[in-house]
Every structure is written in C-alpha cells, then in structure tokens.
Automatic annotation (TrEMBL):
This is Uridine kinase. InterPro entries: P-loop_NTPase, PRK/URK, PRTase-like, PRTase_dom, Uridine_kinase-like. Its EC number is 2.7.1.48. Keywords: ATP-binding, Kinase, Nucleotide-binding, Transferase. It comes from Multifurca ochricompacta. Belongs to the uridine kinase family. Pathway: Pyrimidine metabolism; CTP biosynthesis via salvage pathway; CTP from cytidine: step 1/3; Pyrimidine metabolism; UMP biosynthesis via salvage pathway; UMP from uridine: step 1/1.
Amino acid sequence: MSDYLDVHFRDRSNPKPTPLIVIDTKVLTNTILKSHGRPPWYGEDGQSISPAFVIGIAGGSSSGKTHVARQIVRALGSIPAVVIMSQDSFYKKHTPEEVALAFTSRFDFDHPDSIDMDLFAACLSDLKNLQQTNIPVYSFTEHQRLEETKYLYGATIIIAEGILALHDPEMRKLYDLKIFVQADSDLMLARRIARDTKERGRSVDGILEQYLRYVKPSYDNFVLPSSRHADIIVPGKNNAVAIELISTHIRRQLQQRSRHFRQKIAASLKRSLSRGPPRELSIDELGLTVLEQTPQLKGIYTVLRDRTSTRQDFIFFTDRLATLLVEKAMEMLPYREVNIETPVGVQTQGKVIDVESLCGVTILRSGGPLEQGLQRVIHDVPIGSLLVQSDSNTGEPLLFQVRMPECIRQRHRAVNTWVFLLDAQIGTGASGFMAIRVLLDHGVNPAHIIFVTFLVARNVWLENAKRHVAFLDEDGFDDAQQHKAWVVEPGMGQIGDRYYLN
C-alpha cells in the first residue's frame, strides 16, 4: 500500500479550501485513496454488480474513531478508492444568533439536532449506490456551513465516522458494518484538551466548560446508547487484533463482490462462436455515423499512413481529421429555428444549437488528439478527462482519475448535458465501456452521449458491443438524423455522483 494519499482536505483553522497536495495518511477528513485503479464495477451486460461497502464508526469525542478508520485503511492494503466521510461536514446552517453563541462556546454541537442527518444519509446513499455526490463544507473558524461543496465519486469503500454515526436509524440502514470505538472517559477528556488547545487555540477552562455542559451529556444520552447497534466494539487503543479481524472481513466481502469483466465477455463470445462464426454486422446495424469517404478524406489518410510523412505533417493532418470528425458530430445535436436580422436589416430564419449544456470528456491519453478539433469547432467548450489504464496482469480496465466539468458534477444539470466522448484509438473498447459507465453514473442521458473516435477495430469492439451491450435507438428523434447511441444498458444511469475529489 502506498504510504501517501492524494487528497483534498480542509484545514479547520483556514476557511478557504486547501489545494490538492500529497500528504501523510495522518490527515483523515474526507480522504480518498487513489494509489490503485478501480476495476470495473459492472458486468458484461453493463449492469452494476454491487454497491460500495459502507462502514459506520461511532464513539465518544476523542475516543479514537479517526485513528481506527486510518488503521483499517492501512490494513486493507491495495484498495481502489476509499472515502472517509466526517460527520463534521454536515453541521446545519446556523442563524446569526447561533453563530454568536458558537463563538462564545455556548452552542451545543454534540446534540443530534445540530447535524443535518437527512443530508448526511442522502450523500452516503448516493456514494453507496455508486453515484456522485457533493459533500457540504463546514468552516470551524466561521462556525458556518459554506456555500461551496466537495465533489465525490467512485468509492469502493466508504467510512462514515462521527460521534452520532450510529444514532440515526436511516444512517444505520446504509451500513454494511457498524463499529463503536470504546474508550475511558478520562482518556477522551485528556485527548480533547490536548487537541483543542493545540489545534483550535482554546483555553483549558473553556474546554472543560463545554465538555461538562454539552459533550458529556451528549455522550451519556445519545452516543453511548448507540453502541448497542454496533456489530463490533473496538477499544480506542491497543486494537491491532480488532483491526485485523475487521480488515479480513472487509477483504472477504469485497472478494465475494468482485467480477472479472473481460473473462465473462470472452466466455460469452466463445459460446457464441461455438454455434458458428458470427456474421459481420453492417454499418447500419452497428448504428455508426461514418464520415463520407471523400477524395479530401482519402488524401488525409494517405498522409497519415505514409511512413515518409514528417512529424509536423502527421500532427497537422491529424488535427484536420479531428476537426472534420467534430464537425460531423455536431450534426447529432438538436437545433431549433430562430429569427435574426442581418447587418443590412433583412429578416431571416436560421438555426442554433438547442442544448442546455455541452461539454467534452477525453479518455486519457488517446483522446488528446481530438481535443484540438473540439476546441476549434466549439469556442470555450469545457473539457473533462478520464484516466483509464489496463491492468498488466489481468488486462482489466482500471479507473485512476475522474475530472468532470461542472455541468456533469451536478446531477440535475448532467441530465440535460450533451457530451462529446473523445477516444482517438479503440482496440477492445474496454476503456470506452468504462467511460460510458462513468457518464451514466453521473446521470447523463444515454441519448446525449456522442462517441467521437478514430475507429481502428470495428469488428473487435463494436460487434462485440452489439452482442454484449444493450443498443439504444432513442425515441423522439427524427429518423433522418440517424441519432443512435452505443450505451451500456440503462438503469444504472440513476447512479449518479461520486468519487474522486476534484
């Protein structure tokens, strides 16, 4: 396991977000492990295999909850994506009067009513169902929830920790494993004094007053009683044996949920071949829109295939071909009629693109050559990226990074967003399948995904896709537009927003 995590986090002493950095694993709040790629989370039919594994960790203030969470992450080893969600992110928005009380340590942050449990459960449910979500950001210096949010998508394991993590019944329904961290009250108070004096600049008198007024009553009335819901109670220190048992259980659960995407496709194709060689599918059957093979296009092919072509010529004509592809893809967008007036005062009718949002998503690194063409055709188009690479041992595609434009991060906007998915080279199409799955997880309408590519292996990918992935010809479009889309079977399209921190 890597000793470092590539994460975003919030310094509680600084209300502004801290930029992306590499830090030691001691930073625990909203941590994402990205040192290992995420294997396919869907089967050969495109359907999701299983939800993320969710762990709830509760315990008293300074009992060692985040330490236990960190130890679990370390013990698990090579895990594709781990998110640690802190209850602290979900404090409710405060009124000016409540903020004034907070600055004088007279506001009860330990009572269940101070936490937006509905939002906490909703965000956790999204992540469990492999959707994206947007976590609120709370400032401890301002004692207020900020307007900004933190985007998450793609977790394999989610750890939700907080003193009241096991208190709410709706939250408990989401957990696959419930843990309560038990510690001596004197030890918790000593840890709290050391933390608050060092990290938050508070006085010992103020800490003791707040502890007796709010922290101790909350522990006795709400936190400790929630321990009866725990599957396992872990000591706050000297807990190596308990951590090993927990990590072994989690690894076993993940193993039971794992699938081999390529193996299943290959096995299915082998059964198909046993009934005789498959018939080559036509362009119409595949639902492809292919550039007209004009003399100009064939001239571009000639330069690209000529071994004597210079590097400069190869780049120049690749950009030309990319521009032609994007211009053809523009025909797939819906247009509406408008009335305009020319500079000489003549009224005339024209057409404009009728879309709410439009963006590009590049499959790194092969999709890079198409970006230039997209930017030439559509000025200031937002472009996101997906880093998908093949496992050297299994050949499975692995998702390493997701960076989506704002219009896709927000699910209510993603539904009405049109996406040009750019992939300059297709072999087996495993990266393309995964990229489409990610877009559907974010709530993008399947009919709004336009796959733009230099098609290299039609028989290998598209015909395989035809047999193993649902083909969708959306209703509501004119047949003359030939608007067809290759998609993994919908239904997971509701899986919306998660994963990697931006």
